[in-house]
Amino acid sequence: MKRLVAAVAAAAAVLAALTGCGGTDDTESVKPITHQIDSLRAEIKMESKAVAAHDADAKDHIQSVKETAAYVTPKLADLAKDAPADTRDFANAAHAWAEAVLTSRTAILEQADADTSTAALANVGLAARTLDQDAKHLGVKGWENVHDL
Fold first, then answer.
1. What share of the chain is helix, strand, coil (3-state, %, to 5)?
2. 14-24: per-residue pLDDT in tens?
3. Measured between alpha carbons, how far is 149 from 19 in angstroms, rounded to an integer?
4. Quick one: CA dihedral 37, 40, 43, 45, positive or negative?
5. SS3 letters for 94-117?
6. Helix (H, G, I), strand (E, B) or coil at 135
7. Which residues lie closer than 8 Å to 52 by C-beta, 6 or more apart?
């Protein structure tokens, strides 16, 4: 399953590069961060379409988002730890957002109580707004707000 997640992540990055979406900033320290964000963003978009369409496979899409978040979260933690000062806030925000997505999808799949699920989803929204603000502050080119997902 990790290979599938890695393949999806790579495909999302290639698609983003070809279409000019996502991580197109010239700053070398930003590119690997946006690459991980784009991987998770692509999965969330597919999940959103499946849920909106009441697709019978929506749970599989939620699981895929969870697995992708689990894959990118430690990578983003490493990138945040090693980030230069000018990109550290952005890297930390990306890591926090991925962790929040992972927590929320885990809560959904484990059918946590309503209060837990609501808090987890609210945390995703807060982390997404912070990430979007940090991307804007840093001037990340081609940024697509994650809060709008």
1. 75, 0, 25
2. 334 433 344 43
3. 18
4. negative
5. HHHHHHHHHHHHHHHHCCCCHHHH
6. helix
7. none
